[in-house]
Specification:
219 residues, alpha+beta, Glutaredoxin, Glutathione S-transferase Yfyf (Class Pi), Chain A, domain 2, 4-stranded mixed sheet, 50% helix, 9% strand, globular
Length: 219
């Protein structure tokens, strides 16, 4: 039987989250992989045409076309995951789950991109702003490290979708904007736990078979 769900994965992009989620939930899905353009490393025209947002990730499910990592994760957990990997409002850790689920795309990923773009601009114009962003970035990583010193996963004792959302920024994103995680040992230990998960290993092998996951201190 052919599944109606297709994960459209742009190589080395945030859409790896959706492949990983499907593997963790043992969801029946088809994977269509797209290579980045050689000239600018952006998505090819056929990927941009999938959704008006023009960016990864995108899924299609019958007539539905859905973008945005958080929206896709929520959709798949609700429609195919029977609520697994989410934390209900009446369960312990609900507020932690909400915070860390949204932390990745609301705080961490935008901050990495801001630092990256300013580092590539005129240093004489960006120096003060860049230093402030770098300080803020370090503070965010320290906060994350403290959380992981007290809990093996972001929402508590078990992996949830909050982890699925967060890991890209700590791993594959460092191929684009390298940064060293050696000062944050609890984050590094966390990435080793993630890298040992069979579902994560399967997902990365399918999504980017030529890529060794970036799980160590340096990218």
């Amino acid at each position: 039987m052919t599944t109606s769900l297709t994960v459209h994965h742009l190589g080395r992009s945030q859409s790896e989250r959706i492949v990983w989620l499907c593997e963790e939930l043992d969801i029946d899905y088809s994977l269509r992989r797209y290579e980045r353009r050689q000239d600018n490393r952006m998505a090819p025209p056929e990927y941009k045409a999938l959704h008006p947002a023009g960016s990864a990730p995108v899924i299609t499910d019958g007539a539905l076309v859905l973008a945005e990592s958080g929206a896709i994760v929520d959709y798949l957990i609700a429609t195919r995951g029977q609520g697994r990997l989410a934390v209900r409002h009446d369960q312990a850790g609900f507020a932690d789950y909400l915070y860390w689920f949204h932390f990745a795309n609301a705080s961490l990923q935008p901050l990495i991109l801001q630092v990256w773009f300013l580092e590539r601009s005129d240093p004489s114009m960006a120096n003060v702003a860049l230093q402030r962003l770098q300080d803020r970035f370090g503070a965010q990583l320290s906060m994350l490290d403290r959380r992981l010193s007290a809990s093996p996963f972001l929402a508590g004792a078990v992996l949830t979708a909050a982890d699925v959302m967060a890991v890209f920024s700590l791993t594959t994103m460092r191929l684009f904007k390298p940064y060293d995680l050696s000062p944050w040992t609890h984050i590094l230990a966390y990435l080793q736990r993630i890298g040992a998960r069979p579902a994560y290993r399967r997902a990365m092998g399918k999504a980017d078979p030529d890529l060794k996951p970036v799980l160590g201190a340096l990218p």
